[in-house]
Amino acid sequence: MEFTVLTIFPEMFPPFWENGIIRRAIEQGIISASAINIRDFTTDRHRTTDDRPYGGGCGMVMKPEPLADAIRTARANAPSSKTVLMTPQGRPFNQRVAEELSLVEGLIFVCGRYEGVDERICRHFIDDEISIGDYVLTGGELASMIIMDAVTRLRPGALGGEESAARDSFSENVLEHAHYTRPRNFEGDEVPDVLLSGNHREIEKWRLETSLIRTFLKRPDLLRERPLSPHEINILKNWCSDIETIIQTRSLPDADPPSGGQ
Ligand code: 4FV
């Protein structure tokens, strides 16, 4: 998979590309990555990439000419790549989109700065607009790194044996179960016994239950979007009956009886 970033700050990327799983994926040829400086496509001696907005107002807009030539060059180098503009106006980035993008041959990231890019670039040179969240950044560079990171780890071979994308949070619209490692007792806090039992069926059951309860407590919206397996339905029903028992047995005597108890 080929990543090309179009930016006026190419120096931001080597630290990201030269560390960790991204570095290893580049070394193993799983991905390739390069940065193109949009300023190299300017024609004035000040290498100007921005100008005042038509219609007035504050801030500056990225000029279309240098961007258009930079995109044409990137596309010539990577013809099967998809050109993506990082913008708050884009479709929300999530694990689904990461899985989708991890299947394409290449991505060309257009990293805006200032107030954004001239609209004619969006109209004629952009295949996809993606937003990493409903907030405004000073530039699209960090957003492109987030997408490169989430997509790279989904490429076959990128995650060595010690990691796996299969049990990712969100991969099945649930949050991951809790993780523990040595020491068994950390400042008085013990690792759950089941994880020390060696009983993998019980461990799997515990992990599923903890990821369901965490999702229920922290991101119930995810559960609402997700089909539940018979086993998961069974777990949720057990919780309901436990909660029902608590309500039945723990209600304070003089508290007015739960509704419906005329
Ligand atoms: C952004 C986002 C983002 C907007 C103006 C760059 C900045 C500046 N990109 N998700 N949120 N971009 O805020 O992707 O040009």
UniProtKB/TrEMBL annotation:
NCBIfam families: PRK00026.1, trmD. Belongs to the RNA methyltransferase TrmD family. The gene is trmD. Its main location: cytoplasm. One of its GO terms (biological process) is tRNA N1-guanine methylation. It is found in: Cytoplasm. It is an enzyme of class 2 (transferase). InterPro entries: Alpha/beta_knot_MTases, tRNA_m1G_MeTrfase_C_sf, tRNA_m1G_MeTrfase_TrmD, tRNA_m1G_MTases_N, tRNA_MeTrfase_TRMD/TRM10. GO terms for molecular function: tRNA (guanine(37)-N1)-methyltransferase activity. Homodimer. It catalyses: guanosine(37) in tRNA + S-adenosyl-L-methionine = N(1)-methylguanosine(37) in tRNA + S-adenosyl-L-homocysteine + H(+). SUPFAM superfamilies: alpha/beta knot. Specifically methylates guanosine-37 in various tRNAs. One of its GO terms (cellular component) is cytosol. S-adenosyl-L-methionine binds at residues 112, 132-137. Residues 1-224 form the tRNA methyltransferase TRMD/TRM10-type domain. Keywords: Cytoplasm, Methyltransferase, S-adenosyl-L-methionine, Transferase, tRNA processing. This is tRNA (guanine-N(1)-)-methyltransferase. Pfam families: tRNA_m1G_MT. PANTHER family: TRNA (GUANINE-N(1)-)-METHYLTRANSFERASE.
